[in-house]
Amino acid sequence: MNSARKAVVLSSGGIDSTTAMAIAKHEGFKIYSLSFFYGQRHSFELEAAQKVANAIGVTEHLVINIDLKQIGGSSLTDDIDVPKDRDEQEIIREIPVTYVPARNTIFLSFALAWAEVLKSSDIFIGVNAIDYSGYPDCRPEYIDAFERMANLATKAGVEGTTRVRIRTPLIRLTKAKIIQKGIDLGVDFALTHSCYDPSPQGFACGKCDSCFLRRKGFKEAGVTDPARYI
Asked: Residue 138 falls within a domain, yes or no?
């Protein structure tokens, strides 16, 4: 297969990244999925990412270790409580403590390095600027800026052999539309994990922002959420 048909897909094991991966697969790309153990509160999302990689049939699934817990500053990597029972207005009002400083920039930088080695021009990331928790690194202007930087910072970009595209097929979709798109592509959402603060057994708390947005998305899509809740 032509090297231009390889795609690096960032995978968290959640709804958005899994749907983005299914879209890349549907477009005919060989998938190289990339996940991170970055010192987050739990490893259930990595287990989900592996299950998704197996189900979609990726060419390679890579997990990279980065200890962002040493930096902290987020309830996902530090001794800070995960917000619970917030309504939608609270969620969109401010950037929450679940934001991990510079996380997407770090993840995309690793994806960029791998894409350059693979001679891939396409990096997929499931960011969303509508039903999201206010994260600054999920916005279109950020993605546009990173793409410009990527083509200035790589040998392939400077020499003009490969122009990198940061693909964000979900960025302007609601969570409900993302779920419907995934279902249309045959995604098994029972494999995915969304909760920020699950039980030791992996059951979703049902109260964090991510659980709220997931439940809202499935309800609006008119589809039963297969996640296991406490």
From this structure: yes
